[in-house]
Amino acid sequence: MIIMVIVVSNLFWNKEDWKEVIRVDGRGYYAYLPAVFVYHDLNLGFFNKIEKEKYFSPSNFFDYRTRVNNTFINKYFCGTALAQLPFFLAAHLWCYISSGDADGYSRPYMVMISLAALFYLALGLVFIRKLLILFDISDRNIVLVLLAVVFGTHLFYYSSCEAGMSHIYSFAFFAMLIYYGKQFFRLNKQVYILFVSILLGILALIRPVNLISVFILPFLSGGLQNLKVSLEGMMKQKSCFFFGLVAFILLVSVQPVLYRISAGTFFIYSYKDDGFNFLAPHMVNILFSYRKGLFLYTPVLFISLIGGYYLFQKNKFEFYSLFAFLFILTYILSCWFLWWYGGSFSSRVYIEYIPLFAILLGIALKNIPVSWLRKLYISLIFLLIIVCQIQTYQYRYYKIHWSDMTREKYWKVFLRLDQLMLSPPEKAQ
User: Fold this and answer.
1) For residue range 61-86, what is the model confidence (pLDDT) as tens digits?
2) 358: which of 63, 290, 347, 374 lies 20 to 30 Å off by Cα?
3) Angle at 359 between CA 353 and CA 360, to 5 degrees
4) How far apart are CA 228 and CA 191, in angstroms?
5) Helix or strand or coil: residue 310?
6) How does DSSP assign 269-309, residue by residue?
7) Quick one: angle between helices 2-12 and 107-134, nearest 10?
């Protein structure tokens, strides 16, 4: 984490660079905080003053509003802002104490949001470590897994360079959810139902598609019989289930309440014509394409699948339930009308689910029996970490285009660091 703080402070805490902490979609996720606590205006009347005048940047401007019932509302969901809230309030307090500019967008706010992303990165890693311990992964292998997921995946980019995006926050809460879900099935303590319900509610409030996380529970149970016994026990002791359900409903109802206040109706589909087309999935593209392929730009996740072989040998139920979840996840994510999800490095919508790949990577490291093969696998992990870091660097300097990569473009710049562009082209909108 010290390395990450150094990286972020060098990139975004100097000169005018702090103005780039929150970009594109992230500006919409964040806007709930100044809207509620500074301007008291969920209809975003401050947008022109802030986005078009005071903090205007041609490369960073993004209109996150949508019109409903003849008024403007925020297109995005409020869960990310909820996760950022403690850091926003700390910055807000500091601005008042120091007589700084308490407009919600000045430097203290941006520094605190970048720290928020690092905090949730650390929180997610803590719970990945706890998970790996439950899978009997050794401390040495855990260290290697954590290095791989931080520096060998797009988790690095989205925790350091895109602090306003939702994915790093979902990553942390998903890691917590699968840890407490695993503990529920291991220990059969009903209180974990409440924890899982709260976390599922937060995940849904960040991005509703995160509700798919509930389908990971069979894998966490460890076996069909244990799944049945645990669910039967949950239905017999209904108090925790009831309170968990209430907590979930209260959390997800925050968004409809905000809609009611801002637009006069509880239920709004703010994305309008954008949505899923479940008859036209792009499963191969989302995983392997030159445009945004998950395994092309973050190949360490691909080699983690080797852990599936050893999982199959140990527990076929866990294998089938985990890979069924990954299949369903990929199908749903690839059905979004913009399957490459606009401007992004790799397929950013998988960041939330990196804890599952971490488990597979840990299982592979634990079970590869031959010494030379294990050394080769570890060497490959470090090699792919380097590849990911180079490609991340290329993406930051626009040698890897934010949206329109092709086979020709990819191999033309493959691992090249020479002649980096000094002036970025038009950024993603």
Assistant:
1) 889 999 998 999 999 999 999 999 99
2) 290
3) 100
4) 18
5) helix
6) -TTTT--B-TTS--HHHHHH-TTT-HHHHSHHHHHHTTHHH
7) 160
pTM score, two decimals? Answer: 0.94
Residues 6+ apart with CB under 8 A from 339: 282, 285, 286, 292, 333
**Does 59 map to a domain?**
no
Residue 428 pLDDT more than 70?
A: no
Distance CA 264, CA 414 (A): 52
81 φ, ψ (degrees, to nearest 5): -60, -40
Q: Is residue 420 pLDDT above 70, yes or no?
A: no
SS3 at position 315: coil
- Give the whole-angstrom CA distance, residue 357 versus residue 346: 15
Q: Per the structure block, which two tokens stand in for 59?
A: 């490369």
* pLDDT above 50 (res 304): yes
Tokens of 43: 């209809």
Q: Is residue 296 part of a domain?
A: yes
Model pLDDT, residue 422: 46
289: left (phi over 0), alpha (psi -120 to 50) or beta: beta
The whole-number pLDDT of residue 425 equals: 45
Q: Which of 429, 333, 410 is nearest to 27 (CA)?
A: 429
- Number of domains the chain contains: 1
Residue 55 is assigned to a structural domain of this protein: no
Mean pLDDT of 223-231: 91
335 domain-assigned: yes
Is-contact 306 377, C-beta < 8 A?
yes
DSSP 211: G
